[in-house]
Design brief:
202 residues; mainly beta; 5-stranded antiparallel beta sheet; 5-stranded mixed beta sheet; 19 strands; rod-shaped
Length: 202
């Protein structure tokens, strides 16, 4: 939730006869740090002597409750899931007595890198051969990086051993000289098991 000290957003004096009414609008948190997943946060507005309105300034943020008031109240702020890099958006709290107002800043974390490598169980004929794995970026920014590692000597990576975003990993399975065997590749954090049938025996 929001983590910041109270901040006075606006003050103004309205004179009526001999009485002077002071307008004051404050928000309990000027800044909020949120995760990449969609969610909602609540900001508490303390207002004295004037009305106020709340309006999101970015298309991924929406004010879903407490859009305006003439006394203290709550503003409910919904934010969309982030499928890219870290971003910052704002909600403007505008008092009727002061054009400056105050702002709630929402800082959203970058999306977690997620990859799809298709089937994680593959077979290779006894004679082996060339094959490939397609890496698809399923979530996160285009800058998400991945690596490919073979955990068995009879499965040899040919290219590439790493990449950014989407890509393809090529490998070769050696001919099997004996009993059925299996090995693994670790590509973009996912383990792919390759099973090879028994080779020719004489």
């Amino acid at each position: 939730g929001p983590t910041a000290a109270n901040a006075v957003g606006s003050t103004a004096g309205n004179v009526s006869g001999s009485a002077r009414q002071v307008c004051s609008v404050a928000v309990d948190a000027e800044q909020a740090s949120v995760e990449a997943a969609a969610g909602e946060l609540v900001a508490v507005i303390t207002a004295t002597g004037c009305a106020w309105t709340a309006m999101a300034q970015d298309d991924w943020i929406r004010v879903t409750g407490g859009q305006s008031g003439d006394t203290s109240g709550e503003v409910h702020i919904a934010f969309d899931a982030n499928a890219s890099g870290a971003r910052v958006g704002t909600v403007a709290i505008q008092s009727t007595a002061d054009a400056v107002g105050t702002t709630i800043t929402v800082a959203q974390a970058a999306a977690t890198c997620q990859f799809d490598v298709g089937s994680t169980a593959r077979t290779s004929p006894p004679l082996g051969g060339a094959d490939s794995i397609t890496v698809t970026l399923a979530g996160g920014p285009e800058s998400c990086a991945w690596t490919a590692v073979s955990e068995n000597p009879f499965i040899r990576l040919t290219a590439p051993l790493s990449g950014v975003g989407a890509g393809m990993v090529a490998f070769v399975v050696d001919p099997n000289p004996g009993a059925a065997r299996s090995g693994t590749l670790v590509v973009a954090g996912q383990t792919i098991e390759i099973t090879q049938a028994v080779g020719c025996t004489y």
